[in-house]
Design a protein that fits this description.
This protein folds into three domains: about 100 residues, Urease, subunit C, domain 1 (Roll); about 325 residues, Metal-dependent hydrolases (TIM Barrel); about 120 residues, no CATH class. It has about 575 residues and is α/β, with parallel strands linked by helices. The longest helix is centred in the N-terminal third of the chain and has 17 residues.
Length: about 575
């Protein structure tokens, strides 16, 4: 007798092959049989007219703190994700000496916009070394599987102390010690090593991330320590201001170690061709046998603005300073006063000396109503600037009125990266590149401005069904991109496809009704911490290791997930 049979579903098996109608039988934690099955089972799901696909594998998350207190790892689990990998971008909480805890929280708060108060309240520090961290996680109840990477920032601080935090050059002895720690982490079960070389990554005080100035020798030596094990992956991000020099570092890390490396690829308005140059460099490296990949997003990296989140178009207007401290209800009541509206619209924003933030809050040609369902490829004709011209009013007034919609809970969407032409044509090319990997959702992070943990839903809904302003992508390819391809990059061979003997991580999706909703603000982090959470409807069942973990997006209480460890042959 089987434990569970999924009947008559349209199976997208994760390989990229065409779908087929079949039954899938589960026994224990694995897929037992696929075909036309008549055997009896303890439980049956009727999936007729529904998509049956592998559970999604998200390789770019920041649950390093949240995993210690939250077994359900929302919002990823609203989007069919059954495996997450954290420790990206060189930030995390292990290894860590007691005296470095506050600084690591400050680094995570600054880089990933996770409330420091929540991290202080939620993390129960029971470890120092990375192997100890894994042992703690192994005993945590989990609804989905969790994998780890060891972050460069934490390693630098652990070995070099304040010198590492201050971005000083490491001695050879310190490099050797860092390399040994990373090697021990991989041996203990970490899937890889991550680093950051971007000015966008700063701690909560504004100081640059400690890995940004690390010399090539330091990074290559660490990569080689992983290469000695013939296991593990590398992940990095850079501004690539000096393209040749920066790209050479990442290429050498992969070439010298023999290990795969993925690098963040996004289109920036200031350097519109940079992403293409980077992907061309990756393809050239692959042609020479160097295992490099571009990690790409399925939509624009966008900022959400509103009265409940970090920014709105009037954040730096003098009349808004006092208002920002009030409750949402008080904000709405004040803003509905015509006199207050007139006063605000007569003002100019005060410069804060941060060009990027000022650009985000004042570029009305790139502001849109996000809406419900969320629209992530808005027409430029629907921008606040375009609407203002049609109505013969200022774009500021359009933004002001939008903020009051939905009793002050409406969100304004500003596509920051990947939206220069006013569409997602750049992203289409990124996704179709032979050496791109879907990622960059940053689940668990950017709590006050960005809500990109929903990337898996965007990938299949927008690109596989809804896109009208350009080409779609075959659904079988999209599903493979976030199942088989992500799993194999990390060397995880027991999931990502629906085949007999494989792990029973499965989504049953009502694809016709799959809907990505507007994010909402919740105060459900420890210490009442605020975060943006975006839900989706249409995920009828998400199965983890043979048990139904989520039904219609809600947890069943099954905790069949676990820490997964990299296996070294």
């Amino acid at each position: 007798m089987y434990d569970l049979i999924i009947k008559n579903g349209t199976v997208y098996d994760g390989t990229g092959d065409k779908p087929f109608v079949a039954d899938i039988a589960i026994k224990g934690r694995k897929i037992e049989a696929i075909g036309e099955l008549e055997e009896v089972s303890k439980q049956t799901i009727n999936a007729e007219g529904k998509i049956v696909a592998p559970g999604f594998v998200d390789i770019h998350t920041h649950y390093d703190g949240q995993v210690t207190w939250d077994p359900y790892l929302r919002p990823s689990t609203y989007h069919g994700v059954t495996t997450v990998v954290m420790g990206n971008c060189g930030v995390g909480f292990s290894p860590c000496k007691p005296e470095e805890r506050d600084w690591l929280i400050s680094l995570m708060e600054g880089v990933e916009d996770i409330p420091g108060t929540a991290l202080h309240e939620g993390i129960n520090w029971q470890w120092e070394s990375f192997p100890e961290y894994l042992d703690i996680l192994e005993n945590k109840p989990l609804a989905i599987d969790v994998g780890t990477q060891i972050p460069h920032g934490a390693v630098r601080a652990y070995v070099m102390g304040q010198r590492g935090i201050n971005r000083e050059e490491a001695t050879q002895e310190e490099i050797d010690r860092m390399s040994q720690l990373v090697k021990e982490a991989i041996q203990a079960g970490a899937f890889g090593f991550s680093t950051s070389r971007t000015e966008k990554h700063r701690d909560s005080s504004g100081a640059l991330t400690p890995s940004i100035t690390a010399h090539k020798n330091e990074l290559v030596s660490i990569a080689n320590s992983i290469g000695e094990l013939n296991s593990g992956v590398l992940q990095g991000i850079s501004d690539f201001y000096d393209f040749e020099s920066e790209f050479d570092i990442f290429k050498e890390m992969s070439q010298s170690s023999g290990r795969p490396i993925s690098i963040t690829v996004e289109q920036m308005d200031q350097r519109p061709d940079w992403w293409h140059q980077l992907l061309d460099g990756i393809e050239a490296a692959q042609n020479k046998g160097i295992n490099m990949y571009g990690q790409v997003p399925p939509r624009a990296t966008g900022i959400n603005m509103g009265l409940e989140v970090t920014l709105n178009p009037f954040t730096f207007y003098p009349s808004f300073y006092d208002l920002s401290k009030k409750s949402l209800e008080e904000k709405v009541a004040t803003m509905r006063d015509p006199k207050f509206k007139k006063k605000v619209l007569s003002e100019q924003p005060v410069s804060i000396g941060n060009p990027l933030v000022e650009e985000i809050t004042q570029s009305f040609n790139k502001m849109f109503r996000l809406g419900d369902p969320a629209n992530y490829e808005p027409d430029p004709d629907s921008s606040f600037e375009a609407i203002a011209k049609k109505q013969n009013i200022s774009p500021q007034e359009v933004a002001y009125d939008c903020l009051l919609e939905k009793e002050g809970k409406a969100l304004i969407y500003h596509p920051l990266f990947n939206y220069l032409p006013g569409n997602l044509d750049f992203v289409e090319k990124m996704l179709n590149h032979p050496y791109s990997i879907s990622g960059l959702g940053d689940a668990g992070a950017h709590c006050g401005a960005i809500s990109d943990a929903s990337f898996p839903t965007t990938l299949i809904q927008h690109w596989g069904r809804d896109r009208t302003r350009g080409k779609k992508i075959p659904l079988e390819k999209l599903i493979s991109m976030q199942t088989l391809e992500t799993s194999r990059l990390l060397g995880i061979s027991d999931r990502g496809v629906l085949k007999e003997g494989y792990k029973a991580d499965i989504n049953v999706i009502d694809f016709d009704n799959l809907t990505l909703h507007e994010p909402e603000v919740l105060h459900d982090l420890p210490a009442g911490g605020r975060r943006l959470v975006q839900k989706a409807s249409g995920y009828e069942y998400t199965i983890v290791s043979g048990q139904i973990a989520f039904e219609n997006g809600e947890a069943t209480g099954a905790l069949n997930g676990r820490l997964i460890r990299n296996q070294i042959s």
